[in-house]
Protein 1
Amino acid sequence: MKGRVIGGVGLLLSDGDNVMTAIAELPAGASVPADNGAIELIEPVSFGHKVALESIHRGGDIRKYGEVIAEATQDITTGEWVHTHNAESRRGRGDLSPGRDR
Amino acid sequence: MMQFQGYKRSRGPAGVRNYVAVIPVSVATASIADTVAARSDHAVRSTPHQMGGDPPEKTREQIERTLIGVGRNPNVGASLLLSLGTETTDYNKIIDGIAAFDRPVEHISVHEAGGTAATIETAVDVAQQLVGGIAGCQREACDVSDLRFGVECGGSDATSGIAANPAVGASCDLLVEAGGTACFSETPEFIGAEHILAERCPDPAVRERLLSFVDARESAAELMGVDMRGAQPTPGNQEGGLTTIEEKSLGAIAKGGTTPVQDVVSYADELPTGAGLVIMDTPGYDVESVVGKVAGGAQVVAFTTGRGSTTGNPIVPVMKVTGNPTTARDMSSNMDVDVSDILDGESVASAGNRVYETLIRVASGQQTAAEQRRLEEFAINELMPNELAGEPA
């Protein structure tokens, strides 16, 4: 396995990541034994999707594989699903080029 | 040293199949090529494509380079080129490029042959003669260092970066250790991971070339003022749990393994033999990307897919590797290696061994799922601004 399985329900790709990848269909309320104590999912998270292991402020880094994979577009709570509704890419953004209307 | 049973060629590395390729010079003869292959021995394979007969110069050069590469691929013993007769794409240049590699090559022009019906009739006869000419070539023991192994991903989901790509990467490491060449590509999917790849290039010139290819893909998006998120990750990737191109890229580069990046080549350029890990600059669109590596001389392609791609190729076996247990079960007739046990604790090294063993068996003649079903997609990368901005995979 690449990374480390947490409680049989999630995968932490690298130590220091602030999201884990669900390796099962996880219902709201599911408990995950994370390193800093158990966290509870506040919503269902599908297989392959990400769960916040700590609270992340708007504009903060989302870390997976030990690298920054996205920026939070709103405050994210521990146990929340992390995807395109609350995180976005910093790369390939021609729409944000200097001099361009947004 | 591990060996495979292949077809030795008078020039270049051994092939893993022994085909006659029927190659249309332009879209005008694409259907004819298909008809000729359908009416011929199973060793006759067509490579139909949609490129016009009078393309812009850079596109024409890319078409010619790609079609020469098809004729030179070690899996192709002989080629039959079909032209309408009016193309500016230079069939003589293609013939010369293939012939320079000691491969028999014939050409038929629809105008000179007297129309479509006469062309098909003549072409079926010529293809049969070419099959007769290569039929004497028998499989014999070849060193695995002859292999140029292309790796590709398509229909990625979160399991691709966790299971299938690391497993295929481990098989690349084994082949590189055995003296072969492994090649991965899809430049848009380096964005966000290029700093990691750059650190793996021992040669500064190779590093600069890699970064310039990535810059070109990303700046094309900036030039056009588009947001790559419309295309990368694709809606399907997103449904599978991938949020950003950075996340997709970090998972995608795992399929090349962990060895140093020894060289970086352009689309459809010949891949060096015995060269270790090599990167090719290709679009993310998987059919065009596979064809780039096939034209580069790859004899086998491993294709990782989480969501369940079915892509094949006319002249090169494409083996599917999935790390998604649902896809492994529901699409078992399209999959060759199931590495989803990685999610239940199988080591990446163990799964990588299984991929490598499958590679050797496929190289020695075992049919892949795509071959059994004659899934033979073929497309040449057309140089278009929107494609430079990043294609869906």
Protein 2
Amino acid sequence: MNSQNPVIQLENASLERGGRHLWRGLDLSVKPGEFIAILGPNGAGKTSLLKVLLGLLPLSSGIASVSGQPPRRGNQRIGYIPQLKRFDDSLPVRGIDLVELGLNGYRFGIHNHRKATAQVAKAVTAVGAKSYATQPIGRLSGGEQQRLRIAQALVGQPDILLCDEPLLSLDLASQNSITARLDRYRQRNEAAILFVTHEVNPILPYVDRILYVANGRWVIDSPDRVLQSDTLTGLYGTPVEVLRVHGRVLIVGTEDEALTTAGAHHAHEKDIGDEH
Amino acid sequence: MSIDLYLNQAFAQHALLAAGLVSIACGLISPFVVARGMAFAVHGTSELAFTGAAAGLLVAHNPVAGAFAGALVVATVLGTLGNKEHERDSTIGVILAFGLGLGVLFLSYYHGFATQATNILFGNIFGVSNDQLLVLVTVCVGVLLAMLYIYRPLLFASVDPEVAEAKGVPVRALGLVFLFILALTVTSAAQIVGTLLVLSLAITPAAAAQRLTTGPFAITMLSVLFALSASVGGILASLASGTVKPSIFVTSISFAIYIFARTFTRFA
């Protein structure tokens, strides 16, 4: 690991929502270029952690800093991929418009957007979305929409990428190509990635450390050490078994274990719309 | 009687000027009304402009000022009460029903010409005085400038609120600002087609444009063009006919454009 200053730092951070402790005393220090996976059951406060870093939620106690400063809304150094919500058919935007909004959508007034057009085209090509980027966004499949969301997050050349379940609704091939794409960006730009997911397998080859949050407790370490039966049993407080089958990791005994199996994943896909 | 004769007269020129400006404003907001699912808000604010107009008529014999005042009150109330998206329509329904009741009450105390009341409902651009026309022009120019200023962040907030918020767009504040812009535009449009028929200028143009083209710029330009064709075309047709009110032609042209767009749909 290099000795650069951390881009994200949490010290003794706690978050309470609706009178419930999501997590307590969290210490996290992320260096430039690190790939951190954030795992844990539903409602463990994974999305809320991203919202804290985006300046959308205040900590209940403790200190948070992003690039050495307190989190603030509108930090253009952060690229954000929110949880997939299908775009509605009635929206008046194409794929390229969505990507361009990620670049300059926060700016008021009238601007010449010639320069933006070239950047947008580059970002769209880089995620392999060129062939459908000029279609209305609502007509595209879930996977196509998601690639454009990733282009939207990358177009501003962020130092930090916050991704919330970006692989949900994608088929296996898309999952792999998109994670590879995110990882290439990370390596080239020394960008830190925080990646909230239910499904650790597609990103396992790239992950430096895993932050596992459950029952208000947390553990952060290398994937090999976190994905151990005794580590997760300690975290959940109930017996959890980690199995390694054909190079895939299966976590058994957690309430959302079904989500790590292929069958349940397809059920999700159905909710959101088929890939093709 | 020839239409040229009318076109040399101030009342016709003023009507065309007002209609043109109002249509540009309508065309500009129309894609956002569709994207934000605010058709019922348009209907609600326009019906309540009727209440304001009736009150204005009764108190100061000035339905236009009353309508604008009413629209601002309604936008404030909706902005305060209807914060949650799924609550918005029911809030509008509640206020709309009560507001119309008040409007009927005001009209029952008004003992002037009955045509004044039907003008509010169905529009009478030829009957608007110079002063009122000036108000209309001022409001429309204000709406145009405001829309140009907030266009991009408003688009971001309308299509992708989560990322927009993270990127620092004041999503909630823009929603409120747009509500006021919508209320002012709708009230202006009501002067031409009447409060009951505003949807033909505020929804139909974008609904048609989205079927024929894609991308925010093209859709906005096309819906401005459609709104202009309907209102200016409607006034000219009314002048040519001599007896039929412009509203009837405006709504008919608007509907014809929509039917055309549905027939030759490229994007749906």
